[in-house]
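Figure 3 (text version): C-alpha cells given as input.
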C-alpha cells in the first residue's frame, strides 16, 4: 500500500489549490465547505435503481433479471448495452458504448432525476483505460507545454532575483526540492508556483522592513520582479502595500480594482472551459500582462491537467459516478473529491447547481452463479439478521502526526473495536500486531472483517456467514475477479462466500479506502444502505476503487446493531445521499456550459479593463 502525499483529506489537484496573487495577500482557494446538516433516515428504494447489463452476455442478463425480481426493480429499469466482454474497456468504448446510450435510456424514460444508483452486473467491464487524445487535443497539449516551459524559465529567474533582494548574504540559490516521487505532475506544478510565490513575498517583506533611503534603492528592482511575477495585478498591490516615495497610498480607492483582479484570477484558474480553444493566443497574451508569468504558468498547467492521461485509468463504476459529466467538464487524470463524502465542503455562497453524482455498485463475482448468491445471501441476512463475529486486523501502528495516514487507519480499526464493544452485542476480535489472521480456520463465523496487510495474497483463514461484509486494505486487490489464477482478496473472498467487499483495480493510495470506524458505524445504525455508507466514507471518485455487492443491502435496517447517537466520530450523523437534493442532471450540465461561457466573457472584460489604463499611462 502506498501513502498519497500531503493531507489525505485534501486533493491538491482540485480542491486545495492555494494559488495566491503573491504580493496582494489574496488567496484563491479551491476549498469547499459545507455546514453541518440535520440527520435524516436513508430510504433508498428500488425505483431509484438502474441495472446495467451486457447485452452480449446471456449470464449478465440473467443476473440483472434476478436482481430486478428480488429487489422489485421495474423491468424497464434494466438497460442492456452492447459492451465488450473483457474486464478492461477503452475510454472511447466507455463513452460511445456505455455513457451515451445509458444517458439516452434515462432521458427517454424521463427518469434522469429519479435514478440515484447504478448496479453494474456480471459481464460489465471492470476497468476503463486512459483516453487517447485527438489530433486537436494533441496540438493544444503541445502548445500548453510550450507555454508552460517558457513561463517556468521566467519564474525560475524571478525566484533567483527575488531571493537576492535586500539580503545581507547571497541567498539567491534555489532551495532543494523535497522528494516528490509519486506525486502527479499537476501537484508538482502547484508546488513550484507556491515556492516561487513564497520567494517573492519574502522579498517584499524584507524591503518593507528597510528604512529610507535603503528601501528606495531596492524598490525599483522589487517592482520589476513583482511585475514579471504577477503582472499589473501584482504591481498594483505592491504599490498599495509599499507606496512609492512621494506617492500616498489611496487605500480604499484601489479596492475595486484589486477586487476585479482577484475575480479575474478566480475565473482564470477555476471557471474556464479547458482546454482554451477560442482566441487562445490573445487570452494568453492578456493573462501575461495582467497576471504575469504566474498566470500563464497556472493556466497552462490547468490545461495540461485537463488533457493528461497520467494515472487516468479508473474502475468503470467509479467513473460512472460522473455519468452526467461530459469529458470536457473534468480531467480524467488522477482522481476527484467525492461530493457525497461526509466531510466534503461545498463552496460558500455558491449559486449554481452542481451536476449530480450517482452511486454505483458492482454485482459481480467469479461466476454468474456466485453473482446470483450475492443478492440471495444479502436478502437472507436482512430477513434473519447478520450473526457472527467481527474480526479486525490492525498492526499496532501509532499515529505519528496529523499527516500520518497509516497510523490513522490503524487507529480507526482499534476505534472500531471500541465502538463494537461499547455500542453493540457483537463479539469483536482485534489482532493488533503485524501478525495476521492467516491460518486455515483461524477466523470462523465471520460477520465482518477489515484488516491489513498482505499484498494480493488471499489467506484462507475465514469462514463467512451469509451476509458477511469485509475488505482488505491493500493495493490492487480487485485487479480481476474472473481470472482463475488471480490471488487477490476480492476474487477469492467472493469464491469463499463473502456477500459484500471492496477493493482497487490498481494503486489507489491508502486514503481511497473508507475509514473502518466510519464505514461500519454508519452501516450498523441501519440508517444507511451499503452503497450509501460506502459513498459517505469514500473520498474519491473517477478513481480505482470498486464496491462489490448489492447496493441496497442493509442487514441492520429492521434491527439496528448500534444507536444513531453512537455516531460520535461525526460532528452530526451524515445526511443520507438518497435524502439530498438531486438536481436535474441535464439542466445542471447545460447551466455548467453557460457558466463557462459567461466566465470567459467576464474574464475578457476584466483583462481589457486592467490593460487599458496601463496603455493610456504608458510614456
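Below: residues designed for each position.
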Amino acid at each position: 500500500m502506498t501513502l498519497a502525499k500531503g493531507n489525505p483529506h485534501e486533493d491538491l489537484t482540485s480542491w486545495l489549490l492555494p494559488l495566491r496573487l503573491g504580493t496582494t495577500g489574496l488567496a484563491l482557494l479551491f476549498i469547499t465547505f459545507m455546514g453541518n446538516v440535520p440527520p435524516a433516515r436513508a430510504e433508498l428504494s428500488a425505483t431509484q435503481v438502474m441495472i446495467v447489463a451486457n447485452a452480449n452476455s446471456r449470464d449478465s442478463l440473467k443476473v440483472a433479471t434476478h436482481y430486478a425480481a428480488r429487489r422489485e426493480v421495474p423491468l424497464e429499469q434494466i438497460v442492456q448495452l452492447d459492451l465488450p466482454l473483457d474486464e478492461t474497456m477503452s475510454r472511447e468504448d466507455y463513452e460511445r458504448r456505455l455513457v451515451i446510450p445509458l444517458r439516452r435510456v434515462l432521458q427517454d424514460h424521463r427518469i434522469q432525476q429519479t435514478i440515484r444508483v447504478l448496479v453494474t452486473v456480471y459481464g460489465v467491464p471492470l476497468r476503463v483505460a486512459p483516453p487517447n487524445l485527438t489530433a486537436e487535443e494533441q496540438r493544444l497539449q503541445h502548445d500548453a507545454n510550450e507555454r508552460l516551459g517558457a513561463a517556468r524559465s521566467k519564474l525560475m529567474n524571478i525566484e533567483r532575483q527575488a531571493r537576492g533582494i535586500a539580503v545581507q548574504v547571497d541567498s539567491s540559490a534555489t532551495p532543494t526540492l523535497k522528494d516528490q516521487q509519486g506525486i502527479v505532475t499537476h501537484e508538482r506544478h502547484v508546488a513550484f508556483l507556491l515556492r516561487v510565490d513564497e520567494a517573492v513575498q519574502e522579498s517584499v517583506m524584507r524591503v518593507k522592513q528597510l528604512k529610507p533611503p535603503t528601501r528606495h534603492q531596492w524598490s525599483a528592482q522589487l517592482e520589476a520582479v513583482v511585475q514579471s511575477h504577477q503582472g499589473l495585478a501584482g504591481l498594483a498591490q505592491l504599490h498599495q502595500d509599499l507606496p512609492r516615495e512621494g506617492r500616498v497610498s489611496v487605500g480604499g480607492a484601489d479596492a475595486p480594482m484589486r477586487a476585479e483582479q482577484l475575480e479575474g484570477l478566480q475565473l482564470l484558474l477555476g471557471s474556464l472551459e479547458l482546454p482554451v480553444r477560442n482566441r487562445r493566443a490573445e487570452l494568453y497574451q492578456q493573462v501575461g500582462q495582467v497576471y504575469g508569468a504566474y498566470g500563464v504558468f497556472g493556466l497552462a498547467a490547468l490545461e495540461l491537467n485537463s488533457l493528461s492521461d497520467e494515472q487516468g485509468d479508473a474502475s468503470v463504476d467509479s467513473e460512472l459516478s460522473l455519468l452526467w459529466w461530459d469529458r470536457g467538464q473534468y480531467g480524467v487524470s488522477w482522481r476527484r473529491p467525492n461530493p457525497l463524502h461526509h466531510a466534503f465542503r461545498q463552496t460558500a455562497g455558491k449559486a449554481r447547481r452542481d451536476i449530480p453524482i450517482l452511486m454505483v455498485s458492482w454485482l459481480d463475482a467469479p461466476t454468474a452463479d456466485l453473482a446470483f448468491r450475492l443478492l440471495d445471501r444479502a436478502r437472507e441476512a436482512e430477513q434473519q439478521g447478520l450473526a457472527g463475529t467481527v474480526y479486525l486486523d490492525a498492526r499496532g501502528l501509532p499515529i505519528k502526526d496529523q499527516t500520518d495516514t497509516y497510523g490513522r487507519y490503524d487507529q480507526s480499526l482499534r476505534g472500531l473495536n471500541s465502538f463494537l464493544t461499547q455500542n453493540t452485542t457483537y463479539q469483536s476480535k482485534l489482532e493488533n500486531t503485524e501478525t495476521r489472521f492467516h491460518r486455515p480456520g483461524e477466523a470462523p463465523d465471520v460477520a465482518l472483517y477489515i484488516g491489513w496487510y498482505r499484498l494480493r495474497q488471499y489467506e484462507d483463514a475465514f469462514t463467512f456467514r451469509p451476509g458477511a461484509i469485509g475488505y482488505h486494505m491493500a493495493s490492487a486487490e480487485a485487479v480481476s475477479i474472473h481470472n482463475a489464477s488471480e490471488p487477490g482478496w476480492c476474487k477469492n473472498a467472493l469464491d469463499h462466500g463473502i456477500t459484500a467487499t471492496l477493493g482497487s483495480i490498481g494503486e489507489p493510495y491508502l486514503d481511497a479506502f473508507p475509514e473502518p470506524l466510519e464505514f461500519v458505524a454508519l452501516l450498523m445504525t441501519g440508517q444507511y444502505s451499503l452503497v450509501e455508507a460506502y459513498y459517505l466514507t469514500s473520498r474519491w471518485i473517477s478513481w480505482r476503487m470498486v464496491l462489490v455487492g448489492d447496493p441496497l443491502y442493509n442487514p441492520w435496517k429492521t434491527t439496528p446493531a448500534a444507536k444513531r447517537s453512537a455516531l460520535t466520530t461525526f460532528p452530526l450523523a451524515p445526511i443520507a445521499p438518497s435524502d439530498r437534493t438531486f438536481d436535474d442532471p441535464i439542466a445542471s450540465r447545460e447551466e455548467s456550459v453557460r457558466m463557462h461561457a459567461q466566465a470567459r466573457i467576464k474574464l475578457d472584460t476584466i483583462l481589457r479593463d486592467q490593460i487599458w489604463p496601463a496603455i493610456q499611462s504608458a510614456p
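The first helix runs from residue 58 to 71.
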